[in-house]
């Protein structure tokens, strides 16, 4: 078991997590975990917290983070996980990667939440109602446990993240935030026909032509299957479909990377065990035309991965599949929106809303954290806004 310390808070909480007037001191314990065996012991409670978080993202969960830590770590990296709990009752989790970087010529250590473009927005996961007390404790304990780390960063936190609501200066921790790119949100409350008529006329015509074209070429009507249990064989077919197209040719398909394929296979099994998996497959007979990896948390479905059969490209099977996924979500009273994660150009055809994301840095207090952390960070951000400086640097590179 990792080291354990106790932090005393001055508030108590009802079991539902709402704050009450101070009555007696409540002990919040923190534990540093760095083994899968101990991490797995908290899996059920961790994932229960995720279902109540406002982000509604499975990437916060043990089911997801465990797969990342096992399959997507860099060779020079190591991980720790900070747990906050009252005895055996989990209050918050913060997974962290210890990374080596450079500030100019100087090598430094930093802490980062797990991130790559297959794992976005990992964050503190906490019991709602306790976030203003628990989140600073998690971050402060992460920095305390790795005293060489100059800052802790979290990439692409959605605007609903409780972490973004914390003023870390109140806890003696300098911090900065910066806007990141938006993500697409498909609201699915109301009437599907009204939504469809709200799309541009040219796009509606394109969708109708695509649907007719697939029916004519295949001699039957495609249908959307939803796989929630025992997904291994069907997910492998989806991986094969992606690898058969341009991503396979360029080497960017999931199956082109052993670690990435292992990550997704493990992840899909974890999501299915949690009851969060919705694997959408557009099929016609035995033919798989397109598919998406859907993940349902509360009233939101995240579309994490999409591929289609490029031999039917002229009929846009990916668009036909997405339309059927949207139709299904409108007809499911339990789904309020689909989360597209990014804001790729194709999202614009679908009249989506936008979710804002921000990048957060929390710096170690003191001279070293300021000189090698916060000041260079602010200087880089300032330089990015100076067109004259960017032009000068480009000339110098030539």
Number of strands: 14
> What structural class is derived from the secondary structure elements?
alpha+beta
Helix content: 25-40%
Distinct helical segment count: 12
What would a concise description of this structure say?
This protein is an alpha+beta fold and 398 residues long.
Secondary structure: elements and pairs:
Blueprint: E1 4-9, E2 26-33, H1 36-40, H2 43-50, H3 62-71, E3 78-86, E4 89-103, E5 106-112, E6 125-126, H4 131-145, E7 149-158, E8 175-187, H5 192-197, H6 201-218, E9 223-227, H7 232-243, H8 246-250, H9 258-274, E10 277-284, E11 287-297, E12 300-308, H10 317-331, E13 337-339, E14 353-363, H11 367-384, H12 387-397
Parallel strand pairs: 5-7, 12-13
Antiparallel strand pairs: 1-2, 2-3, 3-4, 4-5, 4-6, 7-14, 8-13, 8-14, 9-10, 10-11, 11-12
Helix pairs in contact: 3-9, 6-10, 7-9
Care to describe what's here?
The protein is an alpha+beta fold and 398 residues long. It has two domains: 4-179 and 358-397, Gcn5-related N-acetyltransferase (GNAT) (Aminopeptidase, 3-Layer(aba) Sandwich); 189-335, 3-Layer(aba) Sandwich (Aminopeptidase). It contains twelve helices and 14 strands. The protein has helices spanning 36-40, 43-50, 62-71, 131-145, 192-197, 201-218, 232-243, 246-250, 258-274, 317-331, 367-384, 387-397, and strands at 4-9, 26-33, 78-86, 89-103, 106-112, 125-126, 149-158, 175-187, 223-227, 277-284, 287-297, 300-308, 337-339, 353-363. Strands 1, 2, 3, 4, 5, 6, 7, 8, 9, 10, 11, 12, 13 and 14 form a 14-stranded mixed beta sheet that branches. A hairpin with a 2-residue loop joins strand 4 (89-103) and strand 5. Helix 3 (62-71) packs antiparallel against helix 9 (258-274). The longest helix is centred in the middle third of the chain and has 18 residues, at 201-218. It is globular. The N and C termini lie far apart (55 Å). Residues 1-24 have low confidence and may be disordered.
């Amino acid at each position: 078991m990792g080291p354990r310390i106790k932090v005393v808070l001055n508030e108590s909480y009802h079991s539902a997590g709402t704050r009450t007037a101070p009555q007696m001191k409540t002990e919040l314990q923190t534990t540093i975990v760095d083994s899968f065996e101990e991490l797995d012991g908290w899996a059920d409670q961790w994932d229960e917290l995720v279902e109540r978080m406002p982000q509604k993202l499975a990437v916060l969960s043990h089911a997801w983070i465990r797969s990342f830590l096992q399959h997507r770590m860099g060779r020079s990296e190591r991980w720790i996980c900070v747990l906050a709990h009252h005895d055996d009752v989990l209050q918050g989790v913060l997974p962290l990667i210890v990374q080596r970087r450079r500030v100019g010529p100087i090598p430094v250590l930093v802490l980062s939440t797990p991130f790559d473009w297959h794992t976005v927005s990992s964050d503190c996961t906490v019991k709602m109602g306790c976030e203003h007390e628990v989140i600073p404790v998690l971050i402060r304990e992460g920095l305390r446990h790795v005293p060489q780390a100059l800052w802790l960063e979290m990439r692409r936190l959605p605007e609903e993240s409780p972490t973004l609501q914390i003023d870390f200066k109140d806890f003696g921790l300098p911090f900065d935030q910066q806007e990141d790119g938006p993500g697409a949100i498909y609201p699915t409350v109301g009437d599907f026909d009204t939504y469809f008529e709200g799309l541009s006329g040219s796009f509606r015509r394109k969708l109708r032509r695509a649907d007719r074209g697939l029916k004519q070429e295949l001699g039957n009507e495609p249908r959307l299957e939803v796989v929630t249990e025992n997904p291994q064989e069907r997910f492998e077919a989806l991986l094969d479909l992606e690898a058969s197209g341009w991503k396979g040719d360029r080497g960017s398909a999931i199956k082109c990377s052993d670690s990435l394929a292992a990550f997704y296979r493990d992840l899909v099994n974890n999501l299915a065990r949690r009851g969060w998996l919705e694997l959408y497959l557009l099929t016609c007979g035995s033919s798989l035309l397109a598919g998406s990896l859907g993940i349902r948390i509360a009233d939101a479905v995240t579309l994490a991965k999409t591929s289609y059969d490029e031999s039917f490209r002229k009929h846009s099977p990916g668009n036909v599949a997405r339309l059927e996924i949207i139709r299904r979500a409108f007809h499911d009273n339990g789904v309020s929106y689909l989360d597209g994660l990014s804001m790729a150009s194709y999202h614009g055809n679908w009249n989506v809303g936008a979710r804002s994301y921000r990048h957060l840095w929390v710096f170690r207090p003191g001279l070293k954290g300021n000189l090698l952390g916060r000041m260079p960070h602010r200087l880089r951000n300032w330089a990015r806004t100076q067109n004259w400086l960017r032009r000068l640097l480009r000339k110098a590179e030539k």
